[in-house]
């Protein structure tokens, strides 16, 4: 029985390794160099960063301080402006729900966002609507981009916050967050950016005057369960955020609890790797994108998203006359792909992102997202994808 179990597990692993992973927008494999760092801080330097009476705690505290400074520097900020969280979802909730009491106290209950945000932004904002906040959900153009003018036109004296994602997780379209940051900094309106998909990949967009930035580790080769929220000062003034949880003084009292030192060090290592290998990543991601599109030239497809304002590693396609779910089944054993956000994929509902773009129903219902890291696509044959499409395409 033991040998059968071992053999079954081994064969399953071999099968999984033969399937090319094209769902990196959902999550990424932990980089082996990151795993080594995480294991070290789990098994050797395993101290609590809050322990100040011995060397184990001192080393952990010093390491966390260094990691905090490194990650904040990626965003053009000092270390004290970054707090660690469990990921971008928690960061979004702290930013959106944490600023709400200030809006209630000052009578500023107007919020601007877009209809293509991740559910980790849309659902907290829906909760705020139930508390009396007025939320404008801006629609993008047909290419999936929100215009700066559309945001500017909706600004009012009582606008508390603008929340706009950096890179759309379904289409890969880059939003003009850098330009908006400069504009909103001249107003009393705060600006929050969900940068789960763009952190470390488009660093120049996030170093400007954006008040709140949510980041996630598992999109860049770090473990799941670690992220951060940047809370940038305005001059000498701290943003008036209120905590959502209580029970300790950690993380400027905004996020209590024992710091997960191994995960924090893993996030810092992943960011370091991405920063040092950034040009290699860009070139590899773009090359694979070009190979994909060239290999699909014999099929009939529609690119969902603005190719002039997109990251190189996310591609959303709808194939004429092809059901996306049928295509995913056809690719089983070849490639792991998705129809949209991993957080809502079990619902099998049409993409709210493609719907908001005003695309035809056939395109919306059959959008297929391909996303990758260059280091995880060795051996993939684009011809296998084209063959699967041609088999289904009338």
TrEMBL record:
Highest taxon above the source species: Bacteria
Enzyme class (EC, first level): transferase
InterPro entries per the UniProt record, alphabetical: Aminotrans_V_dom (IPR000192), Aminotrans_V_PyrdxlP_BS (IPR020578), Cysteine_desulfurase_DndA (IPR017644), Cysteine_dSase (IPR016454), PyrdxlP-dep_Trfase (IPR015424), PyrdxlP-dep_Trfase_major (IPR015421), PyrdxlP-dep_Trfase_small (IPR015422)
Gene3D superfamilies: Aspartate Aminotransferase, domain 1, Type I PLP-dependent aspartate aminotransferase-like (Major domain)
Protein name per Swiss-Prot or TrEMBL: cysteine desulfurase
EC number: 2.8.1.7
Organism whose genome encodes this protein: Streptomyces cellulosae
Catalytic activity as recorded in UniProt: (sulfur carrier)-H + L-cysteine = (sulfur carrier)-SH + L-alanine
GO molecular function, one term: cysteine desulfurase activity
Cofactor(s) essential for the protein: pyridoxal 5'-phosphate
Family per similarity comment: Belongs to the class-V pyridoxal-phosphate-dependent aminotransferase family. NifS/IscS subfamily.
Keywords from the UniProt entry: Iron, Iron-sulfur, Metal-binding, Pyridoxal phosphate, Transferase
Pfam families xref list: Aminotran_5
Record-annotated Aminotransferase class V domain positions: 20-358
NCBIfam families the record matches: DNA_S_dndA
């Amino acid at each position: 029985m033991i040998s059968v179990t071992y053999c079954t597990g081994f064969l399953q692993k071999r099968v999984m390794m033969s399937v090319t992973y094209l769902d990196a927008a959902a999550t990424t494999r932990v980089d082996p160099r990151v795993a080594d760092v995480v294991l070290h801080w789990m098994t050797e330097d395993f101290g609590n960063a809050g322990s100040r009476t011995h060397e184990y705690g001192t080393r952990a505290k010093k390491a966390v301080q260094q990691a905090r400074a490194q990650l904040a520097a990626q965003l053009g900020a000092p270390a004290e402006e970054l707090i660690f969280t469990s990921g971008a979802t928690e960061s979004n909730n702290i930013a959106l729900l944490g600023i709400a009491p200030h809006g209630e106290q000052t009578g500023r209950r107007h919020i601007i966002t877009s209809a293509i945000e991740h559910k980790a932004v849309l659902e907290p904002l829906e909760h705020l609507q139930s508390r009396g906040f007025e939320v404008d959900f801006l629609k993008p153009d047909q290419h999936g981009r929100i215009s700066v003018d559309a945001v500017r036109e909706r600004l009012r004296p009582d606008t508390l916050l603008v929340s706009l994602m950096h890179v759309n997780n379904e289409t890969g379209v880059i939003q003009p967050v850098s330009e908006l940051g400069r504009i909103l900094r001249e107003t009393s309106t705060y600006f929050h950016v969900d940068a789960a998909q763009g952190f470390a990949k488009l660093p120049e967009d996030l170093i400007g005057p954006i008040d709140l930035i949510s980041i996630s580790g598992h999109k860049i080769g770090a473990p799941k369960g670690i992220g951060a929220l940047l809370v940038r000062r305005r001059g000498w003034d701290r943003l008036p955020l209120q905590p959502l949880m209580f029970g300790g003084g950690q993380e400027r009292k905004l996020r209590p609890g024992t710091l997960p030192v191994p995960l924090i060090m893993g996030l810092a290592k992943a960011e370091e790797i991405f920063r040092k290998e950034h040009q290699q990543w860009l070139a590899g991601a773009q090359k694979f994108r070009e190979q994909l599109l060239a290999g699909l030239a014999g099929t009939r497809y529609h690119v969902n998203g603005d190719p002039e304002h997109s990251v190189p590693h996310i591609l959303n396609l709808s194939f004429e006359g092809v059901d996306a779910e049928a295509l995913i089944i056809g690719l089983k054993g070849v490639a792991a792909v998705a129809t949209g956000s991993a957080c809502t994929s079990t619902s099998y509902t049409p993409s709210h992102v493609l719907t908001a773009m005003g695309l035809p129903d056939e395109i919306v219902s059959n959008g297929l997202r391909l996303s990758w890291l260059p280091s995880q696509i060795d051996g993939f044959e684009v011809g296998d994808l084209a063959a699967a499409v041609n088999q289904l395409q009338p």
